[in-house]
Amino acid sequence: MESLKFDRTDLAILAELQREGRLSNADLADRVKLSPSACLRRVQRLEQDGVLAGYAARIDPDRVGLGLQAFVRVQLARHDADAVQAFTERVNRWDEVVACHALTGEMDYLLQVVVQDLAHFSRFLLDHLLNASGVADINSSFVLRTVKQARGLPLGHLG
């Protein structure tokens, strides 16, 4: 997929929406020094081009009872297309997995798992992940504390 070209105003719009996705068009236009109609046209173009892929709220996991986070490295027994597709389809059905990345190196995937507690993690591991055919090995690490949380992409280097 080819990357699109952005001018300074596009990058300013993207940065503002990453910081505060609920901004009104009028407030966004004021912050990026455009008229509301010009700002709205740019936002709509960024949405149509798939650059703005959606809007979401950041939820504090502890406040909703999801106090345990783990990173689970997964190695598959086989790497043919059918095994990879079967695994990725399963991962996409598991609500506990909030992110999954295919990796280079010894392990094939890195799963970010968010659950209520250790008992929930144990059930997830035994009932889903270890029960999934094709998984040869797993290695889990629990998050003790989050030092930095993803807040958006580093757009400042693009301009």
TrEMBL record:
InterPro entries reported for this sequence: ArsR-like_HTH, AsnC-type_HTH_dom, Dimeric_a/b-barrel, Tscrpt_reg_AsnC-like, Tscrpt_reg_AsnC/Lrp_C, WH-like_DNA-bd_sf, WH_DNA-bd_sf
Domain of life (superkingdom): Bacteria
SUPFAM superfamilies in the cross-refs: Dimeric alpha+beta barrel, Winged helix' DNA-binding domain
UniProt KW keywords: DNA-binding, Transcription, Transcription regulation
Domain (HTH asnC-type): residue spans on this chain: 6-67
Signal peptide extent: none
PANTHER family: LEUCINE-RESPONSIVE REGULATORY PROTEIN, TRANSCRIPTIONAL REGULATORY PROTEIN
Protein's recorded name: AsnC family transcriptional regulator
